[in-house]
Amino acid sequence: MVQYVNAGVAFVGCGSAAPVGYLDNDDLSRVVDTSDEWIASRTGIRRRHLAAADESLRAIATQAAQNALAMADLTAMDVDLIILATSTADDLFGSASQVQAELGALKAVAFDLTAACSGFVFALVTASQFIQTGVYRNVLVIGADVLSRWVDWGDRRTCVLFGDGAGAVVLQATDEDTQLLGFELRSDGTQNSCLNLAYQPQPKELTDTIGVAQGSFQPLTMNGQEVYRFAVKRVPEVIEKALFRSDLSVDQIDWLLLHQANQRILDAVADRLKIPSQKVLSNMAEYGNTSAASIPLALDEAVRRGDIKPGDAIAAAGFGAGLTWGAAIFRWGKSALRAEISH
Ligand code: ACO
After folding, report:
1. 2 found inside a domain
2. 220 lines ligand 1 (CB under 6 A)
């Protein structure tokens, strides 16, 4: 095996995909007792893209990955590792291998990583370890979720929040300085009950003495106010810690890229960190909360719009079920180092 000892991590491509079909707030008000005014003023969400019954997680994850590989100017055969962050795999055994097959990334090893809405940040950090230890050169990190399958469409407190989508980045080993500057990951299982998509066992007796469970997963449940309090307190803390490790101050950050859960959470976190609103990326009006997909989806749109430029410093943070939360500070793009000098 080729080793790239003490390699740095470069962010060389991104891509995204979402189902074509969408439901706006007025459409949703015909499904549950709600209104565009209530949803938009409390969350910033106007519509969400939803996967049809015949659309798979695998398909949108693959599309996002293909777009990211094209931007990176790589082929599927160049990929060494695929990490798929998802909580809604098509197959409980994992969907990363299905994506690997659909991409034709025949040399890549592929596995799923589950950390709910923090999944993309956790996967990014995991992938970077494989690069920095010199094991792999080209890594695809995908965040994809189809939470519409697991939302209770009769519960107005939760169903208005979520949508489906996928996003991906390509990380590459570089012999220049690493562009993943610092990170901080956290979990607190004592607060697990705030946000669940839990398995409900149904006992099944096999013999007089041995029984097993044959159950199913229940729709998503959430204590919205607890999650709000948790996010607004804990997310600024991890961003500050990751910035400290990166040797950067808040005002050196070009973009705040938070998990797109709720506009009020984005505003409150930015406010606490004293980051002006024009540096805060938000696309939740269009997509709602797409869980592990939301950060790479917003990243990809901002890169393709030309807002994020090579060398820009990005503070990304995910937070969600587990509870889990984490931040990663990185510079965008192949020519990051040259761009930094010309700033
Ligand atoms: N439309 C109309 N009325 C509604 C709706 C709705 N969609 N949802 C709730 N209500 C009503 C409730 O029934 C309640 O009425 P009542 O007082 O007569 O009982 C009232 O509005 C207030 O309900 P709350 O649940 O207290 O609403 P809250 O002000 O907390 O807002 C929200 C709910 C937007 C979810 C908020 O708690 C929040 O932002 N939480 C953060 C959690 C979050 O964003 N989670 C995303 C997923 S988790 C993640 O990604 C990390």
Report:
1. no
2. no
Digit-coded pLDDT (tens) for 53-78: 999 999 999 999 999 999 999 999 99
Q: Give per-residue pLDDT as tens, 308-332.
A: 999 999 999 999 999 999 999 999 9
Question: What's the CATH number where 206 sits?
Answer: 3.40.47.10
Domain holding 247, by residue range, is: 181-331
**Tally of domains within the chain:** 2
Out of 180, 211, 230, pick the residue that ends a domain.
Answer: 180
If asked whether residues 307 and 240 sit together in one domain, one would say yes
Return contacts of 126-130, CB within 8 angstroms, 24+ apart: 126/83, 127/81, 127/83, 127/171, 128/9, 128/171, 128/178, 128/180, 130/81
Q: Which of 134, 149, 180 is the last residue of a domain?
A: 180
The answer on 320 and 202 residing in a single domain is yes
Q: Are residues 185 and 323 in the same domain?
A: yes
Residue 117 annotated to the active site: yes
Testing ligand 1's pocket by substitution, the residue of 32, 39, 196, 262 carrying the most ligand atoms inside 8 A of its CB is 262
Residue 339's φ and ψ, nearest 5 degrees, are -65, -35
Distance CA 47, CA 50 (A): 10
Q: Tell me how many degrees the CA angle 120-172-66 measures, rounded to the nearest 5.
A: 65
Q: What is the pLDDT of residue 1?
A: 53
> How many Å lie between the centroid of ligand 1 and the Cα of residue 24?
18
Q: Is 185 a pocket residue for ligand 1 (Cβ < 6 Å)? A: no
pTM beyond 0.85, yes or no: yes
Distance between CA atoms of residues 16 and 139, nearest Å? 16
Residue 339 lies in a domain: no
Distance 228 CA to ligand 1 centre (A): 10
